[in-house]
Design a protein that fits this description.
The structure is a homodimer. Chain A is an alpha+beta fold and about 270 residues long. Chain A has helices at about 5-20, 45-55, 125-130, 135-140, 175-185, 230-240, and strands at about 35-45, 65, 90-95, 100, 115-120, 145-155, 165-170, 195, 225-230, 245-250, 255-260.
Chain lengths: ~270, ~270
């Protein structure tokens, strides 16, 4: 293991143990900088195969980083000593599509048939953009990235179907071109944008009215650039309304041992 | 030498010999498909160093593929048996910035102090775009690509200075993103676009009035995408008006032995 990889494991493990001990329950943004953070979806085994097929068919909104054995709280490959039941600051428990609880751990609801999915998150490519000096408006504004339901249909699998949800970042044309190059290197965390410049052609009527997150200003010398968003699987699952399901709470991500820089495909 | 490289050498040599023999004097578009075609600039040695510095400082409009020894008609590295004085269908001879002759060979004007530059040309990246099924409007229209002088200044070197000239291809947003990815792989033939979507911000008032080439329609679901253009060095040289200078005639390019596919940086 080289030195930076070792540092990644140490930082990931350190933060997860701190969270597990109950010493931290806020948003994970900024924790273990350089480490990959992931969206979490936990489903009963009966639905897991269809969900994995859905993710496989829609890799831009649903980039799978790891899948657990049924009933196992481990996710080997993304965290050495990870316990998915305790290592996120906060969770959301859903029953038949309704949010029923936002617990700090999952021991009381854990079942032997649960399968955990860690899905790539835009934090990873945003770090790469920020490192090149590209301004991200929602970060400048201190708000959540604006997200929109589009008229683009995800490829369906079993009960899972629905529209692609995208996040939007306004960029001047030069930064937009560079951002396409940079994020193309990160296919496992949403990859290249899915759209640029003409939101009405993908069913977005008004940029000032996002379906999720907060609106941000788009200047006259900027283009809106749209990436496939990890909210897509959450919206699709909410639509399906499975009997039982767990996700991370917004902003309360799984901190992995993986390094963002190591996700680059080249 | 592998088989495809060998085929490239054979095809390049075959076409150059045909042109040298006077058997062909039209446009080189479509000849030796797969082979790199190049813009040609020939300058007296006294100006050659400044011109090479200009190209080095402006690699997107002026990607240098090869430079000759002073006085030598060879360009080793781009063509085995190449004679720059006879292997293009047609040339332009300039004196003090005026076009004085369009000869079929250069033997009568050749001098011992001339330095030849082969510069990358958009034919190479257009081939890569067409191979992925991306429509190029000017080809569909059977016209020349529209080109525009921008308000972007090239980095000056010696007497060489002037605005960046760009070529424009209208693309739908999905193809525009893909085209950015594809052309990013070809830095030696203009590389990634320099602009997308907001022509007025780079000093282009009216897309229907190109400074060179022909206007093409841009549909409402398309963005204009702009690449640095090989007309830039020609416009800059025309501005400088050197005592003596030779270029290729429009559309009458240098056919090299190099393969477009081999120019891909990854």
């Amino acid at each position: 293991m080289n030195e930076s990889v070792e540092r990644g494991v140490a930082a990931g493990s350190h933060e997860r143990l701190r969270i597990r001990a109950g010493a931290f329950s806020g948003t994970t943004a900024g924790l273990a900088p350089g480490n990959v953070q992931a969206n979490l979806v936990i489903l009963p085994k009966a639905l897991a195969h269809d969900f994995l097929r859905f993710a496989q068919a829609n890799p831009k909104p649903c980039p799978v980083l790891a899948v657990s054995e049924p009933g196992s709280p481990r996710l080997p490959g993304v965290g050495e000593d990870l316990d998915i039941r305790s290592d996120l600051p906060r969770y959301r428990v859903w029953r038949r599509g309704d949010l029923v609880e936002e617990p700090f751990d999952l021991f009381h609801v854990w079942r032997d048939d649960l399968v955990s999915f860690a899905l790539g998150c835009s934090f990873s490519f945003e770090e790469a953009l920020l490192e090149e000096g590209i301004e991200l408006r929602h970060i400048t504004c201190g708000s959540n990235v604006p997200m929109y339901r589009t008229n683009i249909h995800c490829a369906p699998a079993g009960p899972f179907a629905g529209p692609l949800v995208v996040s939007m970042r306004p960029l001047n044309p030069r930064d937009a071109i560079r951002a396409i190059q940079i994020t193309s290197r990160f296919p496992s965390v949403h990859g290249a944008p899915v759209h640029i410049g003409l939101p009405e052609t993908i069913g977005i009527e008004d940029l000032a009215k996002p379906d999720y997150g907060d609106a941000v200003p788009v200047e006259s010398d900027e283009l809106p650039v749209f990436w496939a968003c990890g909210v897509t699987p959450q919206a699709v699952i909410a639509e399906v309304g499975p009997d039982f399901c767990i996700t991370h709470a917004p902003g309360s991500m799984l901190i992995t041992d993986l390094l963002n820089s190591r996700l680059a495909s080249l």
